[in-house]
Amino acid sequence: MKKEDEKIKELLKGSMVAPSANFKARVIHQIKAEKALQPQPDNSYTTIIDYLEILGIGYFVVLILGLLPFINFGLKGLDNKSFIILSTLFLALASCSSLLFLWKRAKKL
Amino acid sequence: MLSGYFVESYQNMAMTIAYRVCRNRTDAEDIVQNAFVSAFQNLYSFKNESKFSSWFYRIVYNLSLNHVNKQKNKREDFNPDIDGFEGIGISNTSQEIREKDRREKIDEALSKLPRTDAVIISLYYLEGYSVKEIAQIVSLTGNNVKIKLFRARKTLKEVMEL
Q1: For labeling, which of B4, B14, B24, B63 is most exposed (least CB within 10 Å)?
Q2: Does B13 touch chain A (CB under 8 A)?
């Protein structure tokens, strides 16, 4: 039985069917094409998170800036020109960045 | 690229399975191409319960059967593409010509077997798959595979005059 099996195995060795020469390239090309046609995941949620993150960072910086004068001088410490200008500047910067994000997203859509 | 490695590793056996079922080289290439795309799109559904090759050959086998069934439904003539058959590594020396003749004879013998039997015998002897693995690929029980393997072996021996 084993001898017969060996004979059949030997005979069948040549019966393997090979594809044409450009087959591999054809398959890879189709896989890439199908991948490109698949719908892309919706990134809008991530963009809104980014938008809120930028505003959050702005407020966090203002909080840190205000913490030191508040600890040292109380509420009076926050009532000074340089702190108000600095915090307004940071918040304006954060708002501008957020708006820029939203504008970019709207442009993409 | 990973897909290139997979295509190179499995293309010959996949082609052999598809060719044994549909008996047409061009159709077999289309089936295997679709099977590769389908496998890549459904990679997430592959579980490590079986070998990747078994899972992939099962896709090839099922697509080939679907193709044959569609052809039957269309009631088109079914022309075995024996003339277009080329084995691996063929050149023009007299020894190679004799070898080519022998391969064609084997191919003819295999085409006389029922499609599933031809796939089973190829998987068993060419890839060294166990009866259990073959049963998973062709969706049959182990005993059925054993019976088909026995019959295929017998027919092949008769045709090839072993």
Answers
A1: B4
A2: yes
